[in-house]
């Protein structure tokens, strides 16, 4: 199906007016069915490149060397429909160039949450690709073209991302699960051997612990986890690794809450610029994006 | 087979003494057979995660935010044998921790060439993992435990990397091709939408052009190419993309040579420190590695 965001989908224009879903028939139950599909355990030689470049899907991990943000481009090689997760405003030129060079039709520019450390590129991307719609969690209270809620599906070509609410870093944090490919995009809920801070933006260490264990580490152990950030040069992890080696989330919840309360992290450099901009797709009330070296 | 580097392999101790190959029966012809294996075109759902994490292979791309170097960890999940390509000395702690957390037996720490922009971590890794052997091209004239030549194979568990000589950035540049997985690790010969400079270290634009077109862009178009560096936040490309979009290497050779002659690049920041160190596995005559923030 080539429908847009599904389930209890609602669309809102940037002026805030809300339209009813056009796809009530693809809801949470449908999205969750993917999770119970039998896992094919047969392994094919060369299927990595066959799957990941050109023959079935397009997958590209991109990085911002300033905010240490990862952006992800996911595409269906057959239909050319694609989704971009967590673009950064200063790197929209790069991202749009890659989308065009790969001949992709970018349906959605999706945020995992309202970022505090960089300005989202979703608004700028909509200017360059007018058919692209911005997407964010309805409970984030940020503006976007499409709101998502728990269990919704974001479809592109033959594929679909299941939307899982994973609050704790912020109320509106979502993890996007690509069941067919055994991947999840965790935003700031789960980082590689770490997790997002919980000391501002409705942060809750208890909520984050329950989100990560209940919605992310409950996925199959071989699932690859792609975070919104890494500061150590690591690009991915797996459910198995984080269940065994995450120094915070392997602890009991009371120890985790104490660890998070004692982090004493500095005030985010871009917070005052990023938060108001990210509430409106990064396109209003922002200074001109600084040029990248 | 669990043999070490194959083909016209020779081992040399760091004092330079050379031993004959123990594996003359696995040579160039054997390595090249991989290239002519029929390609399986059937695509399996979830085979990306099944292949790339835990079930058959381990693959991890790592990044140095200072020198913009990519390090690659490749492992056979069954035998746990692994290879690390282009480690950076300042990040050896990170790389060794990941190797141990994943329960891998690191057989080889391999360099694609004698780097001018960072000090290799191969020597430091040998100190932490004494069974690991350093590997570099024989024609690089650098010291290492194992020398490779055109057509040799680097085996780890059930897998093998084919060694392809791709001079031009330096005489000793090699590209490592993982035929079973449709990947190639191109070092500085081919970068994403670019290529390595050719204005020092025996650089030759003509040689580089012939290396890239003859040894890398001649691979199947869906092969994923992983470079030693990227400065724009891109993590991989494909043969198809570089054949269509590389702004230098899509040009005729005479235009390419002119482009390379007019780059006027600055002197590499770490060259004076890196070159002498990298001629001896990065372990002699080097200052203490600066701490990473």
Automatic annotation (TrEMBL), chains A, B:
<keyword id="KW-0007">Acetylation</keyword>
<dbReference type="InterPro" id="IPR036866">
    <property type="entry name" value="RibonucZ/Hydroxyglut_hydro"/>
</dbReference>
<feature type="domain" description="Metallo-beta-lactamase">
    <location>
        <begin position="68"/>
        <end position="229"/>
    </location>
</feature>
<comment type="similarity">
    <text>Belongs to the metallo-beta-lactamase superfamily. Glyoxalase II family.</text>
</comment>
<comment type="subunit">
    <text>Homodimer. Monomer. Interacts with TST. May interact with RELA.</text>
</comment>
<dbReference type="InterPro" id="IPR044528">
    <property type="entry name" value="POD-like_MBL-fold"/>
</dbReference>
<keyword id="KW-0560">Oxidoreductase</keyword>
<protein>
    <recommendedName>
        <fullName>Persulfide dioxygenase ETHE1, mitochondrial</fullName>
        <ecNumber>1.13.11.18</ecNumber>
    </recommendedName>
</protein>
<keyword id="KW-0809">Transit peptide</keyword>
<dbReference type="Pfam" id="PF00753">
    <property type="entry name" value="Lactamase_B"/>
</dbReference>
<dbReference type="GO" id="GO:0070813">
    <property type="term" value="P:hydrogen sulfide metabolic process"/>
</dbReference>
<dbReference type="InterPro" id="IPR051682">
    <property type="entry name" value="Mito_Persulfide_Diox"/>
</dbReference>
<keyword id="KW-0479">Metal-binding</keyword>
<dbReference type="GO" id="GO:0050313">
    <property type="term" value="F:sulfur dioxygenase activity"/>
</dbReference>
<dbReference type="InterPro" id="IPR001279">
    <property type="entry name" value="Metallo-B-lactamas"/>
</dbReference>
<dbReference type="GO" id="GO:0046872">
    <property type="term" value="F:metal ion binding"/>
</dbReference>
<keyword id="KW-0496">Mitochondrion</keyword>
<keyword id="KW-0408">Iron</keyword>
<dbReference type="GO" id="GO:0005739">
    <property type="term" value="C:mitochondrion"/>
</dbReference>
<dbReference type="GO" id="GO:0006749">
    <property type="term" value="P:glutathione metabolic process"/>
</dbReference>
<keyword id="KW-0223">Dioxygenase</keyword>
